[in-house]
Amino acid sequence: MIFKRPSSSDSAPSDSAVEQMVRSHRLRPLELLPWIVVVGAYFVFPEYLPLGSQILIMILFAISLDLILGYAGIITLGHSALFGVGAYAAGIYALHVTGEPLSGLVVAAVAAGIVGFVSGLVILRTHGLTLLMLTLAITFLIAELANKAGFITGGADGLQGIAMQEIFGQFRFDMFGRTAYVYSAVVLFLVWLFARLLVHSPFGRSLTGIRENVTRMHAIGTPVRKRLVTVYTISAMLAGLAGGLLTHTTQFVGLSVLSFERSGEIVIMLILGGIGRLYGAFVGAAVYMIAQDELAKADPVFWYFWIGLLLVLIVMFARGGILGLVDQALRLVRRKP
Amino acid sequence: MRFWKSLIATAAVALLPWAATAQTVKIGIINTYSGPNATLGEQIDNAIKLYTKEYEKNLPPGVKIELIRRDDTGPNPDVAKRLAQELITRDKVNMLAGVVWTPNAAAIAPLATEAKIPFMIMNAGTAAISTMSPYIARVSFTLWQSSHPFGIWAAKNNIKKAFIAVSDYGPGHDAEAGFEKGFTDNGGQIVGKVRMPLANPDFVPFMQRIKDSAPEALFVFIPAGRQATALMKAFGDLGLDKAGIKLIGPGDITTDEELPNMGDAAIGVITMHHYSAAATRPANQAFVQAWKREYGPNTTPAFMAVGGWDGMAAIYHAVREQKGRIDGDKTMALWKGWKNDQSPRGPIMIDPETRDIVQNEYVRRVERVGGALANVEFETIPMVKDPWKVINNRK
């Protein structure tokens, strides 16, 4: 059961469940660590900023997936459809309306949100394997639509000639990727604040409830399907935001944003980091992208092997992902004395 | 363990910055090394390696060329763009080269312009690519370059009615438009057109439809590789050959490395292309021999390998002329009008106006030569410029 988070009750048996819930809102100092890294990386690795901004975008994408996969337990292999809709919406908007980035992000999020809402209404009637197949099918449908509608999407050649304006009329997207990095980081920070609020809210709790025991949630009168469609739409908007960011920072959109491979990759990143814990997205996306970059540089032909090996090891020995491993280690240390 | 070795090598290089002098020319190669399309990248990469091995000694004394390879994993423009960005800003490359896919080339183009980095396209074949940046030059081909003259040739060689079937993506559309224009301008008639899905197509229903419309020839374009074999099989199984329909197309449908898998179904197929490994030019025989010596007697270089090979020739030319001190604009000036009579594909030139390749196109028929299938060239259309740019007056 890799989709289940190790229950938190065994960490400190003396706490009551209520106390734990109340405490979980509070910002722990450790939660600032990712942000120290994000800011520090800007100064320490100025030559790695293009990779950095793509990592930030993937983290944002992974957070959006974590909301539905990790918290609500909606198993999907079609998240790239929403990411891609956002990317194309941002690209088409920039090409035909204006190259102003911030309004472009809103357009991306809304477009993906609409697709998420409509598809969510249909597919969230099902669950398990059926749901998985439906998410896949929707990805293929949208990818094929984008391929066929070449007059607006550029088809297999991609959407060319996107020229972004300066952010606030001030910050030009430079070749070294500085603006792109800061831009992605700020958007990610806001999304993180929002997602953190969401998962600790009663709404977020009810999602966990639905994941753990749907029948009971039905029994206590939770409008399960409404909740699921809501979170699916929110997640779609965030995925669209990530897609829009990718368009803005690369100023190009190709069919690969809609590919099934991207859906698979993001699930892998999330599992690698640890699902249902918000920070798994940070760790997973960063580790996966950096490992991929370094391995592919060292051995451009054979690097997929090492990625595969890494995944096998994680799935075999660290069911909760890297963060799960860290948890176990901390627990061991605490128990010793 | 190659990984550790290269890790140590990287560390060593990082610790010894003074080892890299101003005379080292860095070339960033963006190519597809992994995933289902790795065989395409492998052809290009093997040609690059072979060229380096044969000609490294001809560089001016003290000048070295360092190749930095990066894997774009397939048609992934965002990855390709990031790699190009990193190669330019972090590795400080003097030139970019490679690129199998059109969208990847299109994503990199604005970077080449902004950084004034010469960018040598070794494969991607959509006609418009070379217009996207003044720092792009191309040594591969365009689909128009083979399909348009082929349309003319077909119309003049007693084919009056043709059916067009292409894969549904950029190059397919180019092939379709090019052939149709050349063919109909010279009195031919198109009796039907169909666009087939790019991924995992089943050719049987298409072949049935084509058979029913009874053309004299079927013009096909599908991406080079395995699909062509499946298409040949469907063509033969449904008896289109017995119905008197000729199978024709650009050389992508009978690539040299795929021919052995096709068997007798391919015999008699007529194609037009800029390269055949079976060509008897001395420069080509030397190239094929060197290839077989290096990579084994059962391997065959295909047109992608020739793209990599000639791309390296152009790069070496620019490096030699500038004695290793590379300037973006000077390099482009050196490439414009660059000629090579010793290319395996015959004489080639980079058009000074469009920076695109000008090359011979050959009409070839698949025949059995010495026990193996080969594309035998029997007619030459000399020095074809990309017709799309000529017709549309694009530069």
Supply the helix-strand structural class of chain B. Answer: alpha/beta
- Corresponding CATH superfamily of the largest domain in chain B: Response regulator
Strand composition percent of chain B = 15-25%
Oligomer designation: heterodimer
Q: Which ranges of chain A are low-confidence, i.e. pLDDT below 50, for 5 or more consecutive residues?
A: 6-13
- Name the poorly predicted regions of chain B: 16-21
Q: Would you count the extended β strands of chain B for me?
A: 14
From the spread of the alpha carbons, the general shape of chain A counts as: globular
**Largest interface by residue count?**
A-B, 36 and 42 residues
Query: Which whole number gives the mean pLDDT of chain B?
Result: 89
Question: How many separate structural domains of chain B?
Answer: 2
Average of pLDDT of chain A: 88
Beta-strand fraction estimate of chain A = under 5%
Radius of gyration of chain A: 20 Å
The proportion of residues forming helix of chain A, as a percent range, comes to over 70%
Helical content of chain B stands at 40-55%
* Total DSSP E strands of chain A: 0
Q: What's the end-to-end separation of chain B, in Å?
A: 48 Å
- Rg value of chain B: 21 Å
